[in-house]
Design goal:
This protein is an all-alpha fold. Helix content is 60%, strand content 0%. The structure holds iron/sulfur cluster (SF4). The site of iron/sulfur cluster has 13 residues, from helix 10.
Length: 258
């Protein structure tokens, strides 16, 4: 009798697990549908909350001046900020200006950044961009997009970070986190980073544009995670349009099923 009861218990547990998994998958599938647009009031409210929670958001890359910021951002392509921060103190101690970077030389730079992905190409670019800064900009980092994007290894995203962080321009650099948050929440849907950037520039209220970049990156990095967003801890959960958001409010035992 006891054996029968145990078997029934196991069967019931399996059934419940299967039902949980089915419900989880159904909710997750719903998340593939396009999210409805946000109203102006909803966007305003979301950024009001981001601003209240973190009035002066900061990026996580360490730097000393505009040049070292530029270097850190170039190094962060396809690498984590934490990984870049481990390597840059030693590099910046020896080369915190373009002139010093050129003097240090490619081989030495390569050795100093070898823990960072794509370090060979990045070392080459750092020397080339430092030479260009010395030759064309008097050793200063230019404060305009065209000149920044003309530097080796510098694309639109890097230029946006430098313009925003070093020069206080209201730009939004769309990285993997902002791209995901923009699309998932429906705030700024787009097929490319540029589309998401342009949409964000249209919808984010002017007064929040300067910090929007950092709020959205931090939100994507620590809350709206790629595989398992922490919707239950999200300060904009009620505003978010992602149909799958409730899937992640189910008990942790179901989260474990994949
Ligand atoms: S509710 Fe969930 S999906 Fe929506 S923004 Fe928050 S963490 Fe991301």
């Amino acid at each position: 009798m006891a054996r029968k009861t145990t078997q029934q218990g196991v069967k019931a547990a399996r059934k419940s697990r299967a039902v949980g998994l089915k419900a989880f998958k159904a909710k997750a599938n719903a998340s593939t549908k396009p999210a409805p647009p946000w109203t102006k009031a909803e966007v305003e409210e979301a950024f009001r909350r981001f601003a209240a929670a973190n009035p002066n958001p900061r990026g996580e890359l360490q730097y000393i001046n505009p040049f070292t910021l530029l270097v850190a951002v170039v190094l962060s392509a396809q690498a984590t900020d934490a990984g870049v921060n481990k390597a840059t103190p030693a590099l910046f101690k020896l080369a915190d200006t373009p002139e010093k970077m050129v003097k240090l030389g490619e081989a030495r730079v390569r050795t100093l950044i070898k823990t960072i992905g794509l370090y060979r190409t990045k070392a080459k670019n750092l020397i080339a961009l430092s030479r260009q800064l010395v030759a064309q900009h008097g050793g200063e980092v230019p404060d305009n997009r065209e000149a920044l994007e003309a530097l080796p290894g510098v694309g639109r995203k890097t230029a946006n970070v430098v313009l925003n962080t070093a020069f206080g321009e209201p730009t939004i650099a769309v990285d993997t986190h902002i791209f995901r948050v923009g699309n998932r929440t429906g705030l700024a849907p787009g097929k490319t980073p540029l589309e998401v950037e342009e949409k964000l520039m249209q919808v984010v209220p002017q007064k929040y544009l300067l910090h929007a970049h950092h709020w959205l990156i931090l939100h994507g990095r620590y809350v709206c995670l790629a595989r398992r967003p922490l919707c239950e801890k999200c300060i904009i959960a009620d505003l978010c349009k992602w149909p799958g958001k409730t899937a992640f409010a189910v008990p942790p035992s179901v989260h474990g099923i994949s």
